[in-house]
Task: inverse folding
């Protein structure tokens, strides 16, 4: 173990989540906020309210995000749960303004990522306090038996997830655990971990960066060759590797982001189709029921 105890790793394996974990110093968290605000000033709009592409894979066009996803302490934690050869498959800014109606319904990241096996872990790094009042993530334990649940793309208004995806099987709200974080802390959740978040009822912006790390050995399940960023260890040739940006909003970095998002959306549509086909097969066989 590099950063976690054996008990913490066992807890992550059993529940599918782990928190709180120190990630950044108060000074580093404050610098991340300042860097984000500088990027928003450049765009002229909050990343949470502007064009959605800027929220995703910002390591392609912002060097400080590229540095953050390579933070050695974060990677030491991630290595303890997925091994030493690490890729970043995606990152997303999750921003909720004070009193904003934005939320996420119960969902699993695995549904539309198109990766096999299900070893993807998200490190959710808090730039500001993410309390229950501010709309932190709620999770439910896998109790040692994680499984893929059925989703529908509901396209709900104010959903932070682009397609407003939601689990349509029963999820027991009474078992929900609020993953409250202080600025500079992070949580881990496995790709099969059901999670949601409520609107921000606090008086400050709730800001976090979700970094999707995968072992370099994982494979994609769709027909598309996907991009990834090698951040530790060696590559296995399963993805087209991205380069670090030369400067903020460098033309090559912006173009790389555009290509990344285009391919991501193509894969997402394919995975959505595959998921519905699999659900139809399981439903007809009487294997599942809807809420």
Result:
């Amino acid at each position: 173990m590099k950063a976690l105890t054996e008990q913490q790793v066992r807890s992550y394996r059993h529940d599918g989540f782990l928190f709180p974990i120190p990630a950044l110093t108060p000074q580093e968290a404050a610098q991340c906020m300042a860097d984000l605000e500088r990027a928003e000033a450049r765009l002229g709009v909050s990343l949470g309210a502007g064009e959605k592409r800027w929220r995703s894979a910002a390591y392609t066009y912002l060097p400080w995000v590229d540095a953050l996803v390579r933070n050695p302490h974060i990677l030491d934690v991630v290595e303890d749960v997925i091994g030493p050869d690490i890729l970043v498959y995606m990152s997303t800014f999750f921003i909720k303004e004070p009193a904003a109606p934005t939320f996420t319904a119960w969902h699993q990241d695995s549904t539309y990522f198109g990766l096999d096996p299900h070893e993807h872990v998200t490190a959710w790094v808090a730039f500001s306090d993410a309390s229950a009042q501010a709309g932190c993530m709620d999770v439910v334990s896998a109790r040692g038996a994680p499984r893929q649940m059925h989703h529908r793309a509901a396209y709900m208004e104010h959903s932070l997830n682009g397609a407003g995806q939601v689990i349509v099987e029963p999820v027991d709200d009474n078992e929900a655990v609020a993953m409250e974080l202080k600025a500079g802390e992070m949580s881990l959740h496995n790709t099969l971990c059901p999670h949601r978040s409520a609107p921000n009822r606090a008086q400050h912006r709730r800001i976090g960066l979700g970094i999707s790390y995968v072992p370099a050995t994982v494979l994609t399940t769709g027909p598309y060759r996907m991009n990834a960023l090698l951040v530790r260890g060696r590559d296995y040739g399963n993805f087209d590797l991205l380069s670090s940006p030369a400067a903020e909003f460098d033309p090559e970095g912006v173009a790389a982001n555009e290509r990344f998002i285009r391919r991501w959306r193509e894969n997402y549509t394919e995975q959505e189709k595959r998921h519905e086909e699999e659900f139809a097969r399981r439903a007809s066989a009487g294997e599942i029921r809807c809420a």
